[in-house]
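> call design_seq(struct)
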């Protein structure tokens, strides 16, 4: 086998020392395209709320971005807030009253905490698209009795 250094010397162009020199123009073009793609796909707003993994949210065409508010999740079996179960749906589903006692007590406790979110009268409701309206109506009624007056329903933006 020939010595690789002697091979480079014999086949090198005059005035070149035999080292590989990549073309920087094409590399700069590739880096520019990657940079533009990353900037375009970067989201400054981010997600204010992470939906529960067991919910399939409805789709919306609204262009208004959400603001940070108190959040409730209505799953198929329970009412939750930030993953913490508040009330089981089977416990109050067959009651005649609209008020959900466990949720009402918990909401009153949240109003007295004094952090920035609980001082707001806004509630964001995450509900599975298959949830019964009767359950959503009871949650809204209970929240209004606890002093939360403005309701928003979390949906997925249609693209």
């Amino acid at each position: 086998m020939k010595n690789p250094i002697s091979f480079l010397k014999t086949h090198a162009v005059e005035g070149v020392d035999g080292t590989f020199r990549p073309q920087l123009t094409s590399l700069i073009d590739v880096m520019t395209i990657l940079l533009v793609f990353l900037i375009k796909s970067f989201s400054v707003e981010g997600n204010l709320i992470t939906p529960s993994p067991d919910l399939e949210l409805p789709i919306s065409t609204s262009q208004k971005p959400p603001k940070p508010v108190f959040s409730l999740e209505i799953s198929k079996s329970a009412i939750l807030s930030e993953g913490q179960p508040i009330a089981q749906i089977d416990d109050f589903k067959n009651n005649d009253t609209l008020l959900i006692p466990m949720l009402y007590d918990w909401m009153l406790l949240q109003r007295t905490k004094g952090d920035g979110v609980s001082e707001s009268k806004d509630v964001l409701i995450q509900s599975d698209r298959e949830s019964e309206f009767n359950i959503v109506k009871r949650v809204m009624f209970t929240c209004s009795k606890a002093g939360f007056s403005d309701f928003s329903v979390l949906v997925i933006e249609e693209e």
